[in-house]
Amino acid sequence: MPAIREGGTSQLDRGAPPAWMRAAASIAPRLLGSLGIVATVTLVCFHAVRVNAITAGFAYLVAVLAVATWWGLIEATAASIAAMLCFNYFFLPPLLTFTIADPQNWVALLAFLATSIIASQVSEHAKERTREALARQRDMERLYALSRSILLTHTEEDVARQIARQIAQVFDFRAGALYDRATGATYNTGPEDLTGFDERLRESAVKGTLFRDSLTNTVVTAIRLGGEPIGALALRGLLPSDTVLQALANLAAIGLEKARAQEAASHAQAAQQSQELKSTLLDAMAHEFKTPLTSMKAATSALLSDVVSAPASRRELITVVDEEIDHLNRLVTEAIRMARIEAGDLQLTRAPCAVEPMLKEVLGSMESVIAGRSVNLQVAPDLPYVDVDAELVELVIRQLVDNALRYSPSATPLTVRAGRTAGGVVVGIRDHGPGIAPEDRARVFEKYYRGSSSSKARGTGLGLAIAREIARAHGGEVWLETSSPQGSEFCLSLPVAQAEDRA
User: Fold this and answer.
1) What kind and span of H or E run contains 186?
2) Is residue 474 a contact partner of residue 393, using CB atoms and an 8 Å limit?
3) Distance between CA atoms of residues 147 and 403, nearest Å
4) What sign does the dihedral 482-484-490-496 (CA atoms) show?
């Protein structure tokens, strides 16, 4: 593509006809049409109807005004001169000559010509004012549509790219480009390419200059915010007025600043939220660590002081220490799991697993926590294998069982069931506790959230959040199936393993 220079002429333009020839070719049909209208009026008034000179003069004047209204001043002026000559030749005595016998007719003829030309100018001026008003209205409508589009920009795509595309689409430019000084990126849009204007864009963004190329109908203007250039905008096509161009640059500046403000607010909110979550976690962990550490300290102090000498009592104290160590280990595991989930570092090692042995393994590992409570295990026959990371899914089931144990009376039973559905295998854990308050049901899976009835229950509020994230990583889900004063049931869906995976 040849380099484009201001005021230069490209090789493609050398073979084109001059501008005056193109303008003459476009106006010639309208001139012939205006002369044809005058000729028609002459034929009607002189041959068909045979009107007097005054009537013919008014007919010519109406024809000239019609030409001015339809086409423009040049065509109306030509029609005025032609009408004046025809009026003289056919209607002022002596007829069929250009001679005027009565001097008063000279005054009438000149008055007719002046009236025709002035009326044509007035009509052209009115048309021009109408066109300007319509253009301003169209520009206002386009600017409103553009401002609305910029306000609705989303952050899933580069905002600068969206702004450039919206400007080109709304104003129907052949090509557009937006240069963002903050990122140094240029975003092109439109059916044509603006190659070769990168340097102009950067110069305009740094110096705030305005560049026009009349040969290609291209303009490059700075995008300013607070008087300082923050970018540049290049447009090609039917260029708008300077006022509209400045409005486009201002809207682009507002859009870019809005995106940066949203990004900064998002980072600030994320940082604040992260800090709040860390504080909540530290408070929860400190509270949860205090109970097992107190029990362990009491047990070890008793063992060290030789107050307890019976082997059975010493074994019981050692068992307490062992159980509380397991409790502490679970707390740390929860925090580590959630940190990995938030960092997107949850690695799955999938393999076909049978559901019933997995449930029995979990319940067996929690025998000390269940502490003699009745657990009703209901597994449907011929359940298919599930394609899961067994260690992580066992953690989910353990969390759901532990949640049911903590929020139900110690004398009530639990029901653990597994069955087949159209979407896979569903595991349900039901308790006979007081249920979950309606205002808490929508938030039970939020991190660190503990309901209004859980103030005495142990835990950090991470268990259900971890369970749901692990289930979703498998393509499944964890949800609250039912909750009433007679108990609650949480369900876990798991994907079925393919037959070839089990082979």
Assistant:
1) strand 185-189
2) yes
3) 51
4) negative
Q: Could you report the per-residue pLDDT of 104-128, keeping only the tens digit for each?
A: 667 666 776 777 777 777 777 777 8
Least Cα distance to 385 among 498, 463, 284 occurs for: 498
219 Cβ neighbours under 8 A, 6+ residues apart: 210, 211, 212, 213, 234, 235, 236, 239, 245
Paired residues of 212 in beta bridges: 219
Q: Coil, strand, or helix at residue 459?
A: coil
- Return the CATH superfamily for domain 351-502: Histidine kinase-like ATPase, C-terminal domain (3.30.565.10)
Name every residue whose Cβ is closer than 8 Å to that of residue 44 and which is 6 or more positions away in sequence.
59
CA–CA separation, 215 and 96 (whole Å): 52
pLDDT at 477 over 70: yes
Neighbours of 60 (CB within 10 A): 26
Strands across the sheet with 228-236, in order? 185-189, 175-180, 228-236, 218-225, 211-213
**CA quadruple 249, 167, 241, 122: dihedral sign:** negative
User: What class is the 266-342 domain?
Assistant: mainly alpha
Question: 3-class secondary structure for 259-316?
Answer: HHHHHHHHHHHHHHHHHHHHHHHHHHHHHHHHHHHHHHHHHHHHHHCCCCCCHHHHHH
Q: What are phi and psi of 281, to 5 degrees?
A: -65, -45
Asked whether 166 and 146 are in contact (CB, 8 A), the reply is: yes
Domain boundaries, the chain: 21-141, 155-264, 266-342, 351-502
Q: For the whole model, what pTM was predicted?
A: 0.44
Q: Are 375 and 414 in contact (CB under 8 A)?
A: yes
Element (H, E) at 479: strand 477-484
Whether the Cβ atoms of residue 466 and residue 337 lie closer than 8 Å to each other? yes
Class of domain 155-264: alpha beta
Task: Give, to the nearest 10 degrees, the angle between helix 390-406 and helix 463-473.
Answer: 150
Q: How crowded is the C-beta side of 327, counted as CA atoms within 13 Å?
A: 23
pLDDT per position as a tens digit, 267-283: 777 666 666 656 655 66
Please give the Cα distance from 230 to 182 (Å, whole number): 7
